[in-house]
Design goal:
The chain is α/β, with parallel strands linked by helices and 295 residues long. The protein has two domains: 117 residues, 2-keto-3-deoxy-galactonokinase, substrate binding domain (Nucleotidyltransferase, domain 5); 178 residues, Nucleotidyltransferase, domain 5 (2-Layer Sandwich), CATH 3.30.420. The protein is built from nine helices and 14 strands. β2 and β3 form a beta hairpin.
């Protein structure tokens, strides 16, 4: 039987810190096959990248690869230099790695200092699916990005470490005993409101979750949801100049992106949720098209 990827003319790759995902693509941009592994940038030495890619695509044609993400970082396969804002999300020129891979550069902002890798491809994909769109794109994650887009360019952006903070607090502080599991939607909204109305009281509000559990039997599910609401609320308070009065898109799948849509809606700032995989593939396809035109 012919392998589904037999007619692939190129490979799209999303190569992050913890995972590698690849798609065998037809000339028309159709996905013929896909695969993934845990061979992320964080566990590979520089000489390991090519073998990891070859092992995952061993049954696929040996065709050009367009890659985005941390594979192009200083610790990655080959460093792809940052483009500087304001700039298109896909600047001209990809960085070659090995004998067939081409890496999309990240984007930097010098003042205030900030960087992104991988998100620029999702932004490019979103704009290719939504021509002439202006507004703010939120990309939730370990390090959430708030990106101002106008006239098909990234004008400015801000990164917030909300995801990292939530993981660190629930895994390595006293709140690990109070936020073990579960979810309470009303608790999330309460935490959100508390943080937006009084962001300067964030640290005190967090410890009160522990105290309420000990003294009043606050359920873990409520404490966990309120903590999430407190952190996302503090983030919204800090990024208000970005999203207030803007058209907003939230690129992400699942619960986390939905929480941001809910949080923004509670501030009378409606946002549209966009599937992250679709945006990534559209961005990689746009980069491949440009690479072919320039080759």
């Amino acid at each position: 039987m012919t392998h589904p990827a037999a007619n692939a003319t190129w490979i799209a790759a999303d190569w992050g810190t913890t995972h590698l995902r690849v798609w065998a693509m037809s000339a028309s941009g159709t996905v013929l096959a896909e695969a993934s592994s845990d061979d992320g940038m964080g566990k590979l030495a520089r000489d390991d990248f090519a073998p990891a890619l070859d092992a995952l695509t061993v049954d696929w044609p040996r065709v050009p690869v367009i890659a985005c993400g941390m594979v192009g970082s200083r610790q990655g396969w080959t460093e792809a230099p940052y483009a500087t804002v304001p700039c298109p999300p896909l600047p001209d020129g990809l960085t070659p790695a090995g004998d067939r891979c081409h890496i999309i550069p990240g984007i930097k902002q010098t003042d205030p200092a900030d960087v992104m890798r991988g998100e620029e491809t999702q932004i490019a994909g979103f704009l290719s699916l939504n021509p002439k769109w202006d507004g703010v794109i939120c990309l939730p994650g370990t390090h959430t990005k708030w990106v101002h887009v106008s006239a098909d360019e990234v004008v400015s952006f801000q990164t917030v470490m909300t995801g990292d903070l939530f993981a660190a607090i629930t895994g390595h502080t006293v709140l690990r005993h109070s936020c073990d599991a579960g979810w309470d939607a009303d608790g999330f909204l309460q935490g959100l409101d508390d943080a937006i109305s009084r962001p300067e009281r964030l640290a005190a509000r967090m410890f009160s979750l522990r105290a309420e559990g000990l003294l009043n039997g606050l359920p873990d599910a409520t404490a966990r949801a309120r903590l999430s609401g407190l952190l996302i609320g503090a983030e919204l308070a800090a990024t208000k100049p970005y999203w207030l009065g803007q058209q907003i898109a939230v690129i992400g799948a699942g619960t986390l992106a939905s929480l941001y849509v809910t949080a923004l809606g509670a501030q009378s700032a409606p946002a549209t949720q966009v599937n992250a995989d679709r945006a990534t593939l559209a961005g990689l396809t746009a980069a491949h098209r440009r690479w072919k035109d320039q080759s």
